Amino acid sequence: MRSIVLEKSGGGENFKLVDIDKPLLTENEVLIETKAISINPVDAKIKYSEEGLSGLVSPERPITLGWDVAGKVVAVGNKVSKYVIGDLVFGMVNFPGHGKAYAEYVAADESQLASIPPGISFTDAAVTTLAALTALQALKNNVKAGDKVLIHAGSGGVGHFAIQIAKKMGAYVFATSSAKNREFVLSLGADQHIDYRTQAFEEILTDINFVFDTQGEQIATKSLQVMSAGGKLVSIAMIEIPKILQQQAKKLTLTVQAMLVNSNGDDMAWLASLLAEGSLKPHVSTVFKFTEMVEAHAAIESGRTVGKIALTM
Ligand SMILES: NC(=O)c1ccc[n+]([C@@H]2O[C@H](COP(=O)([O-])OP(=O)(O)OC[C@H]3O[C@@H](n4cnc5c(N)ncnc54)[C@H](OP(=O)(O)O)[C@@H]3O)[C@@H](O)[C@H]2O)c1
User: Fold this and answer.
1) Over the chain, what is the mean pLDDT?
2) In terms of C-beta density within 10 A (0-12 exposed, 13-18 middle, 19 or more buried), how is residue 28 classed?
3) What does the pLDDT read at residue 308?
4) What SS3 string covers the chain?
5) From 136, 177, 222, mutation site for ligand 1 pocket: most ligand atoms within 8 A of C-beta
6) Of all protein residues, whose CA lies closest to atom 39 belonging to ligand 1?
7) Which of 14, 180, 222, 258 is least crowded, fewest Cβ atoms below 10 Å from its Cβ?
Protein backbone atom coordinates (compact mmCIF):
# COMPACT_ATOMS: atom_id res chain seq x y z
CA MET A 1 0.00 0.00 0.00
CA ARG A 2 1.03 3.62 -0.41
CA SER A 3 2.02 5.50 2.73
CA ILE A 4 3.66 8.85 3.32
CA VAL A 5 6.47 8.48 5.82
CA LEU A 6 8.70 11.01 7.53
CA GLU A 7 12.24 9.75 7.18
CA LYS A 8 13.59 11.83 10.09
CA SER A 9 12.50 14.89 12.04
CA GLY A 10 12.44 18.13 10.05
CA GLY A 11 10.44 19.91 7.38
CA GLY A 12 8.18 18.65 4.62
CA GLU A 13 11.23 17.76 2.51
CA ASN A 14 11.58 14.69 4.75
CA PHE A 15 8.24 13.25 3.64
CA LYS A 16 8.47 10.37 1.18
CA LEU A 17 5.77 8.42 -0.64
CA VAL A 18 6.60 4.73 -0.17
CA ASP A 19 5.11 1.31 -0.77
CA ILE A 20 4.82 -0.69 2.49
CA ASP A 21 2.91 -3.73 3.76
CA LYS A 22 -0.68 -3.28 4.90
CA PRO A 23 -0.98 -3.23 8.72
CA LEU A 24 -1.66 -6.52 10.50
CA LEU A 25 -4.76 -6.51 12.70
CA THR A 26 -5.02 -7.31 16.39
CA GLU A 27 -8.26 -8.95 17.54
CA ASN A 28 -10.10 -5.69 18.36
CA GLU A 29 -9.02 -3.80 15.26
CA VAL A 30 -10.62 -3.14 11.90
CA LEU A 31 -8.73 -2.43 8.70
CA ILE A 32 -9.91 0.80 7.09
CA GLU A 33 -9.43 1.48 3.40
CA THR A 34 -8.71 5.19 3.66
CA LYS A 35 -10.91 7.54 1.65
CA ALA A 36 -9.93 10.82 3.32
CA ILE A 37 -7.70 12.01 6.13
CA SER A 38 -7.26 15.26 7.97
CA ILE A 39 -4.25 16.97 9.49
CA ASN A 40 -3.85 19.30 12.45
CA PRO A 41 -1.28 21.74 13.86
CA VAL A 42 0.11 18.86 15.96
CA ASP A 43 1.03 16.94 12.79
CA ALA A 44 2.95 19.95 11.52
CA LYS A 45 4.69 20.85 14.80
CA ILE A 46 5.66 17.36 15.87
CA LYS A 47 7.58 16.57 12.69
CA TYR A 48 10.32 19.06 13.62
CA SER A 49 11.22 17.42 16.91
CA GLU A 50 12.94 14.07 17.30
CA GLU A 51 12.00 13.96 21.01
CA GLY A 52 8.46 15.06 20.27
CA LEU A 53 8.03 12.36 17.66
CA SER A 54 9.41 9.68 19.96
CA GLY A 55 7.47 10.89 23.00
CA LEU A 56 4.05 11.58 21.48
CA VAL A 57 4.08 9.18 18.53
CA SER A 58 6.83 6.51 18.32
CA PRO A 59 10.62 6.11 18.09
CA GLU A 60 10.10 4.24 14.80
CA ARG A 61 11.90 5.77 11.75
CA PRO A 62 10.84 6.22 9.08
CA ILE A 63 7.55 7.05 10.78
CA THR A 64 4.01 7.22 9.42
CA LEU A 65 2.21 10.20 10.97
CA GLY A 66 -1.50 11.03 11.11
CA TRP A 67 -4.49 10.25 13.31
CA ASP A 68 -7.65 11.41 11.51
CA VAL A 69 -9.20 8.96 9.08
CA ALA A 70 -12.46 8.19 7.28
CA GLY A 71 -12.99 5.17 5.07
CA LYS A 72 -14.43 1.72 4.54
CA VAL A 73 -13.92 -1.37 6.70
CA VAL A 74 -12.26 -4.07 4.58
CA ALA A 75 -11.23 -6.57 7.30
CA VAL A 76 -12.06 -7.16 10.97
CA GLY A 77 -10.18 -8.75 13.89
CA ASN A 78 -11.58 -11.86 15.64
CA LYS A 79 -13.19 -9.97 18.52
CA VAL A 80 -14.61 -7.02 16.59
CA SER A 81 -18.35 -6.80 17.35
CA LYS A 82 -19.47 -3.34 16.20
CA TYR A 83 -18.39 -3.34 12.56
CA VAL A 84 -18.53 -5.63 9.53
CA ILE A 85 -16.78 -5.47 6.19
CA GLY A 86 -18.27 -2.69 4.09
CA ASP A 87 -19.15 -0.35 7.00
CA LEU A 88 -18.10 3.29 6.66
CA VAL A 89 -16.24 4.57 9.72
CA PHE A 90 -14.29 7.56 10.97
CA GLY A 91 -12.19 8.42 13.98
CA MET A 92 -9.01 9.68 15.57
CA VAL A 93 -6.75 6.66 15.85
CA ASN A 94 -4.46 6.19 18.87
CA PHE A 95 -4.02 9.75 20.05
CA PRO A 96 -1.76 10.27 21.90
CA GLY A 97 0.23 7.52 20.22
CA HIS A 98 0.85 6.08 16.82
CA GLY A 99 -2.18 6.43 14.52
CA LYS A 100 -0.41 5.83 11.17
CA ALA A 101 -3.17 7.53 9.20
CA TYR A 102 -1.05 8.78 6.27
CA ALA A 103 -1.67 5.50 4.47
CA GLU A 104 -4.03 3.73 2.09
CA TYR A 105 -5.00 1.29 4.86
CA VAL A 106 -5.21 2.09 8.57
CA ALA A 107 -5.69 -0.35 11.47
CA ALA A 108 -7.89 1.06 14.23
CA ASP A 109 -9.34 -0.31 17.46
CA GLU A 110 -13.12 -0.46 17.04
CA SER A 111 -13.51 1.37 20.38
CA GLN A 112 -12.05 4.54 18.82
CA LEU A 113 -14.39 4.73 15.82
CA ALA A 114 -17.95 5.68 14.89
CA SER A 115 -20.08 4.94 11.83
CA ILE A 116 -20.23 7.71 9.25
CA PRO A 117 -23.87 8.86 9.17
CA PRO A 118 -25.70 8.54 5.84
CA GLY A 119 -25.19 11.56 3.60
CA ILE A 120 -21.97 12.68 5.27
CA SER A 121 -19.00 12.80 2.88
CA PHE A 122 -15.66 11.15 3.60
CA THR A 123 -13.96 14.55 3.76
CA ASP A 124 -16.53 15.93 6.23
CA ALA A 125 -16.14 12.79 8.34
CA ALA A 126 -12.34 12.84 8.17
CA VAL A 127 -12.16 16.37 9.57
CA THR A 128 -14.69 15.74 12.37
CA THR A 129 -12.10 13.86 14.39
CA LEU A 130 -9.14 15.27 16.37
CA ALA A 131 -10.31 18.90 16.22
CA ALA A 132 -13.94 18.07 16.97
CA LEU A 133 -13.04 15.64 19.77
CA THR A 134 -10.84 18.33 21.30
CA ALA A 135 -13.70 20.82 21.27
CA LEU A 136 -16.11 18.28 22.72
CA GLN A 137 -13.75 17.02 25.42
CA ALA A 138 -12.95 20.60 26.49
CA LEU A 139 -16.59 21.68 26.70
CA LYS A 140 -18.42 18.63 28.02
CA ASN A 141 -19.03 18.68 31.78
CA ASN A 142 -17.75 22.28 31.82
CA VAL A 143 -20.44 24.24 29.96
CA LYS A 144 -24.14 24.39 30.72
CA ALA A 145 -27.11 26.21 29.21
CA GLY A 146 -26.98 29.93 29.85
CA ASP A 147 -23.20 30.06 30.42
CA LYS A 148 -21.19 32.83 28.80
CA VAL A 149 -18.38 31.15 26.89
CA LEU A 150 -15.32 32.72 25.26
CA ILE A 151 -13.68 30.73 22.45
CA HIS A 152 -10.32 31.97 21.21
CA ALA A 153 -9.69 31.33 17.49
CA GLY A 154 -13.29 30.53 16.60
CA SER A 155 -12.34 30.31 12.93
CA GLY A 156 -9.80 27.50 13.43
CA GLY A 157 -10.21 23.76 13.23
CA VAL A 158 -10.97 23.33 16.92
CA GLY A 159 -12.70 26.68 17.41
CA HIS A 160 -15.21 26.27 14.60
CA PHE A 161 -16.39 23.00 16.17
CA ALA A 162 -16.30 24.49 19.67
CA ILE A 163 -18.65 27.34 18.71
CA GLN A 164 -21.21 24.89 17.33
CA ILE A 165 -20.94 22.51 20.29
CA ALA A 166 -21.18 25.34 22.84
CA LYS A 167 -24.31 26.63 21.08
CA LYS A 168 -25.74 23.11 21.10
CA MET A 169 -25.15 23.11 24.89
CA GLY A 170 -27.16 26.33 25.17
CA ALA A 171 -24.29 28.73 25.89
CA TYR A 172 -23.95 32.39 24.86
CA VAL A 173 -20.79 32.41 22.75
CA PHE A 174 -18.13 35.07 22.20
CA ALA A 175 -15.47 34.06 19.67
CA THR A 176 -12.29 35.71 18.44
CA SER A 177 -10.63 35.75 15.02
CA SER A 178 -9.32 38.45 12.70
CA ALA A 179 -11.84 40.63 10.86
CA LYS A 180 -11.71 38.60 7.64
CA ASN A 181 -13.24 35.61 9.44
CA ARG A 182 -15.95 37.56 11.27
CA GLU A 183 -18.83 36.45 9.01
CA PHE A 184 -17.65 32.84 9.13
CA VAL A 185 -17.53 32.85 12.94
CA LEU A 186 -21.00 34.40 13.18
CA SER A 187 -22.35 31.92 10.61
CA LEU A 188 -21.35 29.09 12.98
CA GLY A 189 -23.71 30.50 15.60
CA ALA A 190 -21.39 32.69 17.69
CA ASP A 191 -23.43 35.44 19.34
CA GLN A 192 -20.62 38.00 19.27
CA HIS A 193 -17.35 38.29 17.37
CA ILE A 194 -14.18 39.96 18.61
CA ASP A 195 -11.42 40.94 16.19
CA TYR A 196 -8.32 40.14 18.24
CA ARG A 197 -6.20 42.40 16.04
CA THR A 198 -8.11 45.61 16.73
CA GLN A 199 -10.08 44.89 19.90
CA ALA A 200 -8.77 43.99 23.38
CA PHE A 201 -11.22 41.31 24.54
CA GLU A 202 -10.09 41.82 28.13
CA GLU A 203 -11.41 45.39 28.01
CA ILE A 204 -14.76 44.43 26.50
CA LEU A 205 -15.92 41.22 28.16
CA THR A 206 -17.06 40.48 31.72
CA ASP A 207 -18.67 37.61 33.64
CA ILE A 208 -17.45 34.82 31.37
CA ASN A 209 -18.12 31.39 32.89
CA PHE A 210 -15.92 29.33 30.60
CA VAL A 211 -12.88 30.20 28.46
CA PHE A 212 -11.53 27.89 25.81
CA ASP A 213 -7.89 28.87 25.33
CA THR A 214 -6.37 27.71 22.05
CA GLN A 215 -3.51 30.24 22.06
CA GLY A 216 -1.32 29.91 25.16
CA GLU A 217 -0.16 31.61 28.33
CA GLN A 218 -0.49 35.26 27.30
CA ILE A 219 -4.09 34.97 26.12
CA ALA A 220 -4.97 32.65 29.01
CA THR A 221 -3.60 35.16 31.54
CA LYS A 222 -5.61 38.02 30.01
CA SER A 223 -8.67 35.78 29.94
CA LEU A 224 -8.70 35.45 33.73
CA GLN A 225 -9.62 39.16 33.92
CA VAL A 226 -12.93 38.65 32.13
CA MET A 227 -14.13 35.61 34.08
CA SER A 228 -16.71 35.43 36.83
CA ALA A 229 -15.87 33.78 40.19
CA GLY A 230 -16.13 30.01 39.98
CA GLY A 231 -15.37 30.06 36.24
CA LYS A 232 -13.13 27.64 34.43
CA LEU A 233 -10.50 27.97 31.71
CA VAL A 234 -9.38 24.96 29.70
CA SER A 235 -6.24 25.36 27.62
CA ILE A 236 -5.23 23.12 24.77
CA ALA A 237 -2.22 25.31 23.96
CA MET A 238 -0.18 24.57 27.08
CA ILE A 239 1.06 21.17 28.20
CA GLU A 240 1.06 22.32 31.81
CA ILE A 241 -0.42 25.39 33.44
CA PRO A 242 2.45 27.59 34.74
CA LYS A 243 2.47 28.07 38.55
CA ILE A 244 1.99 31.82 38.29
CA LEU A 245 -1.17 31.37 36.23
CA GLN A 246 -2.48 28.78 38.67
CA GLN A 247 -1.86 31.16 41.59
CA GLN A 248 -3.60 34.07 39.84
CA ALA A 249 -6.57 31.84 39.05
CA LYS A 250 -6.79 30.62 42.65
CA LYS A 251 -6.89 34.17 43.98
CA LEU A 252 -9.84 34.89 41.70
CA THR A 253 -11.55 31.58 42.61
CA LEU A 254 -11.14 30.34 39.05
CA THR A 255 -10.04 26.93 37.81
CA VAL A 256 -7.48 26.52 35.04
CA GLN A 257 -6.69 23.23 33.38
CA ALA A 258 -4.51 22.01 30.51
CA MET A 259 -6.01 19.32 28.32
CA LEU A 260 -4.80 16.78 25.78
CA VAL A 261 -7.38 15.16 23.52
CA ASN A 262 -7.81 11.37 23.71
CA SER A 263 -9.18 8.82 21.27
CA ASN A 264 -12.71 7.92 22.38
CA GLY A 265 -15.39 6.05 20.46
CA ASP A 266 -18.26 7.27 22.69
CA ASP A 267 -17.29 10.86 21.96
CA MET A 268 -17.01 9.98 18.25
CA ALA A 269 -20.54 8.52 18.40
CA TRP A 270 -21.83 11.77 19.91
CA LEU A 271 -20.16 13.76 17.12
CA ALA A 272 -21.66 11.36 14.57
CA SER A 273 -25.12 11.96 16.03
CA LEU A 274 -24.65 15.73 15.71
CA LEU A 275 -23.49 15.31 12.10
CA ALA A 276 -26.56 13.14 11.41
CA GLU A 277 -29.02 15.68 12.84
CA GLY A 278 -27.23 18.55 11.06
CA SER A 279 -26.35 20.49 14.20
CA LEU A 280 -22.60 20.10 13.59
CA LYS A 281 -21.35 21.25 10.21
CA PRO A 282 -17.65 20.82 9.50
CA HIS A 283 -16.15 23.50 7.29
CA VAL A 284 -13.55 22.12 4.89
CA SER A 285 -11.74 25.07 3.35
CA THR A 286 -9.28 23.12 1.16
CA VAL A 287 -9.12 19.54 -0.06
CA PHE A 288 -5.62 18.40 -1.02
CA LYS A 289 -4.62 15.21 -2.80
CA PHE A 290 -2.89 12.63 -0.60
CA THR A 291 0.29 13.26 -2.59
CA GLU A 292 0.13 16.98 -1.70
CA MET A 293 1.10 16.34 1.96
CA VAL A 294 3.89 18.93 1.86
CA GLU A 295 1.46 21.61 0.65
CA ALA A 296 -1.14 20.55 3.22
CA HIS A 297 1.43 20.84 6.01
CA ALA A 298 2.48 24.27 4.74
CA ALA A 299 -1.16 25.39 4.85
CA ILE A 300 -1.59 24.23 8.45
CA GLU A 301 1.73 25.79 9.45
CA SER A 302 0.53 29.17 8.16
CA GLY A 303 -1.83 29.30 11.17
CA ARG A 304 -4.37 31.03 8.92
CA THR A 305 -6.53 28.14 7.70
CA VAL A 306 -10.28 28.52 8.15
CA GLY A 307 -12.09 25.53 9.62
CA LYS A 308 -10.34 22.34 8.52
CA ILE A 309 -8.34 21.00 5.61
CA ALA A 310 -8.64 17.45 4.30
CA LEU A 311 -6.69 15.17 1.98
CA THR A 312 -8.30 12.55 -0.23
CA MET A 313 -6.82 9.36 -1.59
N1 LIG B 1 -4.09 19.87 23.55
C2 LIG B 1 -4.80 19.29 22.59
O3 LIG B 1 -5.32 18.18 22.75
C4 LIG B 1 -4.96 20.00 21.27
C5 LIG B 1 -5.86 19.48 20.32
C6 LIG B 1 -6.06 20.20 19.14
C7 LIG B 1 -5.37 21.39 18.91
N8 LIG B 1 -4.48 21.83 19.84
C9 LIG B 1 -3.77 23.10 19.62
O10 LIG B 1 -4.74 24.14 19.62
C11 LIG B 1 -4.35 25.17 18.72
C12 LIG B 1 -5.49 25.45 17.76
O13 LIG B 1 -5.69 24.31 16.93
P14 LIG B 1 -6.56 24.44 15.60
O15 LIG B 1 -6.56 23.12 14.93
O16 LIG B 1 -7.84 25.13 15.86
O17 LIG B 1 -5.61 25.45 14.78
P18 LIG B 1 -5.84 26.12 13.36
O19 LIG B 1 -7.01 25.51 12.67
O20 LIG B 1 -4.53 26.12 12.67
O21 LIG B 1 -6.20 27.64 13.76
C22 LIG B 1 -6.17 28.57 12.72
C23 LIG B 1 -7.07 29.74 13.08
O24 LIG B 1 -6.56 30.42 14.22
C25 LIG B 1 -6.92 31.79 14.13
N26 LIG B 1 -5.98 32.57 14.95
C27 LIG B 1 -4.63 32.61 14.81
N28 LIG B 1 -4.09 33.39 15.79
C29 LIG B 1 -5.14 33.83 16.55
C30 LIG B 1 -5.25 34.66 17.72
N31 LIG B 1 -4.17 35.22 18.30
N32 LIG B 1 -6.48 34.87 18.24
C33 LIG B 1 -7.58 34.32 17.68
N34 LIG B 1 -7.54 33.55 16.56
C35 LIG B 1 -6.34 33.31 16.02
C36 LIG B 1 -6.81 32.09 12.65
O37 LIG B 1 -7.76 33.08 12.34
P38 LIG B 1 -7.26 34.46 11.67
O39 LIG B 1 -6.62 34.07 10.36
O40 LIG B 1 -8.54 35.21 11.53
O41 LIG B 1 -6.26 35.06 12.62
C42 LIG B 1 -7.15 30.74 11.97
O43 LIG B 1 -8.44 30.71 11.40
C44 LIG B 1 -3.05 24.69 18.06
O45 LIG B 1 -1.96 25.23 18.76
C46 LIG B 1 -3.09 23.18 18.28
O47 LIG B 1 -1.82 22.58 18.29
C48 LIG B 1 -4.26 21.16 21.01
Assistant:
1) 98
2) middle
3) 98
4) CEEEEECCCCCHHHEEEEECCCCCCCCCEEEEEEEEEECCHHHHHHCCCHHHHHHHHCCCCCEECCCEEEEEEEEECCCCCCCCCCCEEEEECCCCCCCCCCECEEEEEHHHEEECCCCCCHHHHHHCCHHHHHHHHHHCCCCCCCCEEEECCCCCHHHHHHHHHHHHCCCEEEEEECHHHHHHHHHCCCCEEEECCCCCHHHHCCCEEEEEECCCHHHHHHHHCCEEEEEEEEECCCCCCCHHHHHHHHHCCCEEEECCCCCCHHHHHHHHHHHHHCCCCCCEEEEEEHHHHHHHHHHHHCCCCCCEEEEEC
5) 177
6) 304
7) 180
Cα–ligand 1 centroid distance for 134 (angstroms): 12
Pocket of ligand 1 (CB under 6 A): 40-42, 131, 134, 152-153, 155-159, 176-178, 180-181, 196, 214-215, 236-237, 259-261, 300, 303-306
Instruction: List residues bridging with 25 in a β-sheet.
Output: none
Whole-structure pTM value: 0.98
Q: Give tens-digit pLDDT for 79-136.
A: 999 999 999 999 999 999 999 999 999 999 999 999 999 999 999 999 999 999 999 9
pLDDT, position 41: 98
Largest CA distance in the chain: 59
How much is the average pLDDT of 26-40?
Answer: 98
Q: Which atom of ligand 1 is nearest to the CA of 160?
A: 16
Distance 303 CA to ligand 1 centre (A): 7
Pairwise CA distance, residues 134 & 127, whole Å: 12
